[in-house]
UniProtKB/TrEMBL annotation:
Record domain Heterokaryon incompatibility: where: 96-223
Listed name of the protein: Related to tol protein
InterPro entries, per database record: HET
One Pfam assignment: HET
Taxonomic lineage: Eukaryota, Fungi, Dikarya, Ascomycota, Pezizomycotina
Superkingdom of the organism of origin: Eukaryota
């Protein structure tokens, strides 16, 4: 049997297709621009249009700025001999731009990216510029430092625009088009097919930004998300992106085409693929967590601070609380929490600064699970070992009492011991033929869940720690977080633990989607993560029984209360 050819399609760039039409319709037109200079008049026009038409979504917020808030004064004449910029204290009504960039391992009080950003601010009639490294006292003993870090949401959302260095590798690279020349656009190749003119116009802007050093750093995530207007300087062109539209130097797009005229201040679908604004609704906090987990941080201790602005904005606008970065949501039917509502697709690495039950305690990309129908209870512990309900934590959220919590959680739920086996599927000779043609099975540790005396379910264990890969032919304690009985998706979610003295630590997660699969409606996935074995040793991709109500593995479950660190 021939193996299916893998789908290797990927987005190589933008192609504009134009076909003849008796009716004139506004379409994006290619714009010729000078790569050696920045067209600041065009950027001013974009900002002016946004100011006039996007008051609801893009107007700078008026949140209270932290005490001793300082900015760089851009009004001073340019002086090539100046060793550092002039930093001044300003009042709460100050209008300023912000800078988002990559600093790198460089000690410089006046790096090139700051010099260039001052020039940009001047050209756009902005008198002040905020730069974290220069406007926040970097002395760790300064009491105002942490307070300003905790106010990143206010600082970036109050900026009239944010300058983003999406081409530099460090703070001395400078802005593309200011310090160093930009790359000329690729030749615009045209071909006509059946009367339709196709024009290739180069790299998608979103791909350009996401593949930049800026797009890989942890601190820059909230800087982009919280800003209402962003001016990206890439090595090809400038992009202006507000919460309602994206504009590119390389395209002339009529502004009104980007909006629905019947509903003021409402955007249309993007005309070009990959020009959807960065802005994500804050209620999509799980998506923000997953995206942030892909980013890199130089210091593990920064995991919470670098995301605190997003968490603060979620608390203010959506009413979400959090404990060490993990959202807590009060709904009509009770509390819901994202603590342990995630797993690592690939094993990560431990961060000693945070607990194992929190995403902040790990390096590596996470995927969120369902969390809306928990079958376990959660409480917090104070330093004096007193148990605290989530309602009490909510009451004390903005007081010093919330600072007295231990970095542990108390879980009450159904527990048992579960067996695991390290399986390399290439060595299994009883796999059905279809396994070799259409279905890939993941090598690694698998949980063993006996369903009946004849059928056993095997489900892949998503390990948290890469250091533990390969050691699983043993039993470990588990707690069932969701049985999936009352949820629409019927996901069975099992938290795998290990004992450490009187406490427990997280090891990984077993996530059986859609319950035990017994029909062709089973979840489609590139890799099979749940398999079944009969007592003769034959493997199956679907259970030959309907969803069992009383599985053997569940008979030993008992309710326990544990403390997880």
């Amino acid at each position: 049997m021939n193996e299916p050819r893998p789908d290797r399609r990927r987005h190589m760039g933008h192609v504009i297709a134009v076909e003849p039409s008796p009716e004139a319709s506004p379409i994006p037109e290619l714009r010729r621009f000078n790569h050696e200079t920045i067209d600041f008049q065009q950027i001013k026009y974009w900002i002016k249009y946004c100011n006039k038409n996007h008051l609801q979504h893009c107007k700078p917020d008026k949140f209270t700025l932290p005490p001793n808030f300082k900015v760089i004064d851009c009004r001073e004449p340019e002086d090539i001999n100046r060793k550092k910029p002039t930093v001044v204290s300003v009042g709460g009504d100050c209008e300023y731009a912000a800078l988002s960039y990559v600093w790198g391992n460089i000690e410089d009080e006046f790096p090139q990216v700051v010099k260039d950003s001052i020039k940009v601010a001047r050209q756009l009639n902005c008198e002040y510029l905020w730069v974290d490294r220069l406007c926040i006292n970097q002395d760790p003993e300064d009491p105002n430092k942490q307070e300003q870090i905790n106010k990143m949401d206010a600082i970036y959302s109050r900026a009239i625009f944010t300058i983003i260095d999406a081409a530099g590798t460090n703070c001395n690279s400078g802005l593309a088009g200011i310090t160093f020349p930009r790359i000329s656009s690729p030749k615009q190749r045209c071909v006509e097919v059946d009367g339709v003119k196709l024009t290739y116009v180069g790299t998608p802007p979103a791909e350009k930004i996401q593949s930049s050093i800026w797009g890989s750093r942890g601190w820059t995530y909230q800087e982009g998300i919280l800003s209402h207007r962003r001016i990206f300087f890439t090595n090809e062109q400038v992009l202006f992106q507000c919460n309602n539209m994206t504009c590119l130097e390389s395209f002339a797009i009529p502004m009104d085409v980007l909006h629905r005229l019947d509903i003021p201040n409402t955007k249309k679908k993007p005309i070009l693929k990959d020009t959807e604004p960065l802005f994500l609704p804050l209620k999509e906090i799980g998506t923000h967590l997953m995206e942030f987990s892909k980013r890199n941080l130089r210091h593990d201790r920064d995991a919470l601070d670098a995301f605190s602005g997003v968490l603060n904005a979620c608390h203010r606008e959506e009413g979400y609380f959090h404990f060490l970065g993990n959202p807590l949501i009060r709904k009509k039917k009770g509390w819901r929490w994202m603590i342990n509502a995630w797993y690592h697709v690939k094993p990560g690495a431990r961060k000693a600064d945070f607990p194992s039950w929190s995403w902040t305690g790990w390096k590596g990309e996470i995927t969120m699970t369902s969390y809306d129908t928990p079958d376990h209870d959660l409480r917090l512990l104070r330093e004096d070992e007193c148990s605290v309900s989530l309602d009490d934590f909510k009451t004390a959220y903005n007081t010093n009492l919330s600072q007295l919590m231990k970095p542990v959680i108390q879980l009450e739920g159904m527990m048992t011991m579960m067996s695991f086996e390290l399986i390399k599927w290439g060595s299994e000779t009883t796999l059905p033929n279809m396994m070799f043609s259409q279905t890939v099975v993941q090598d690694g540790p698998w949980a063993i869940l006996p369903l009946t005396t004849d059928i056993t379910c095997y489900s892949f264990l998503y390990l948290d720690n890469e250091a533990r890969t390969g050691i699983f032919q043993l039993k470990l304690p588990i707690m069932v977080l969701e049985f999936g009985v009352s949820s629409q998706k019927h996901n069975l979610i099992i938290l795998v633990l290990r004992e450490k003295g009187d406490l427990y630590e997280r090891v990984g997660m077993v996530n059986i989607r859609g319950g035990f699969e017994s029909s062709n409606k089973a979840r489609k996935a590139p890799a099979k993560l749940t398999m079944y074995k009969d007592k003769s040793g034959r493997w199956m991709t679907r259970a030959p029984i309907s969803n069992p109500c009383d599985c053997i593995w569940q008979k030993d479950l008992e309710k326990k209360t544990i403390v997880l660190q």
